[in-house]
Predict the structure of Putative transmembrane protease serine 9-like protein.
Amino acid sequence: TQPRVASLRNATTDLHLCGATLLSSEFALTAAHCVEHSADQYVLYLNNYCIKHEEVPRIEVSQVIVNELYDKSTRAHDIALLRISHDFDDTAWLNRTVLPKSSLGLSGECTIFGYGYKHPDVKETSEMLFAGPMSIVSLDECLQILGPYVAPAPDGGMMCAMGAGVDACQQLRHELRSPRAARSVHQRRRTPAMDK
């Protein structure tokens, strides 16, 4: 399980909107484009924190803090903090560092997690968390593969990761029996679907 991964949902309909990562018992991280309304419009479901057959914890969002450099049209700096309040039974796992000190020189393999669509043609998200292996690539390589309209801008505050048949919004095309945990990357990624 990945207890830090949460489902950001509409507070009224409980529909899944985006993934989020718990940073502490007070803050979670998500994409800025996912939180364009007031904080009372959102809740977090901790689908991975609960034990099977227990009620899924539902956490109210009290404040949305969008990166001041976020550009809605280019999605540069597409990151936001959510202030939350939840009485966790055990916070030892939350006290470990989750974000790297710097994104410079990040390379290698990582794993993305999300509640993606069950099928590309049906816009219904899964209640089960999916995982997919990705390779972190340089922004230059990303630009060369994807072109200037899709690749993240060099000054956009993003990184690029690619995987065969995998993206952050769709269910994996194949089942992963033992996903690898991200080695050194736990931050916002732009993850286009690609078949290598």
Q: What stands out?
A: The longest strand covers residues 58-66. The CA atoms of residues 70 and 77 lie 5 Å apart. The domain at 5-94 is CATH 2.40.10.10 (Thrombin, subunit H). The two ends are 28 Å apart (CA to CA).
